[in-house]
Write a sequence for this structure.
C-alpha cells in the first residue's frame, strides 16, 4: 500500500477556485495513472478526473469539463486538481487514488484504483 496525502481543500464561495494536491512516497509514482474522485453527503463516490502515468492522456467527467484541470509533476510525486468556477453542489470530500497496475491505461472506474488518500473536504458556499 502507498500512502497518498491530499491537501488544498477548504471553504470557498461559489464561483471561486481551489487547487488540490496529492503526494505519494517512493520512486514508482511516475509509473501509475492517477485519479481524483469525490463523494458528496448521501451520494456515492464518483470519478472527477484522471491522468495517465506519462501525463499524456487526461480525462474529466462531463460535469467538470472546462472548469477542472488535472495535472501531475512526476519529479515531485504530486498530482494536482485545479478547480475553477466551483458550485455549491460540488461540496464533497475529494480523494486522490492510484491505479492498481503500472503503465495501465487511464480508467474512470474505481475498481481499477487500489491506493486511496484520506480525502480533503471542499465546501462551496452559495
Amino acid at each position: 500500500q502507498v500512502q497518498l496525502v491530499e491537501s488544498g481543500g477548504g471553504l470557498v464561495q461559489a464561483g471561486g477556485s481551489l487547487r488540490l494536491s496529492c503526494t505519494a512516497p517512493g520512486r514508482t509514482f511516475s509509473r501509475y495513472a492517477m485519479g481524483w474522485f469525490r463523494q458528496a453527503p448521501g451520494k456515492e463516490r464518483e470519478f472527477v478526473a484522471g491522468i495517465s502515468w506519462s501525463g499524456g492522456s487526461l480525462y474529466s467527467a462531463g460535469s467538470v469539463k472546462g472548469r477542472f484541470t488535472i495535472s501531475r509533476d512526476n519529479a515531485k510525486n504530486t498530482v494536482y486538481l485545479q478547480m475553477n468556477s466551483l458550485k455549491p453542489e460540488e461540496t464533497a470530500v475529494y480523494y486522490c487514488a492510484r491505479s492498481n497496475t503500472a503503465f495501465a491505461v487511464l480508467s474512470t472506474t474505481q475498481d481499477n484504483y487500489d491506493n486511496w488518500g484520506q480525502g480533503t473536504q471542499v465546501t462551496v458556499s452559495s
Notes: Residues 15 and 85 are 4 Å apart (CA to CA). The first strand starts at residue 5 and ends at 7.
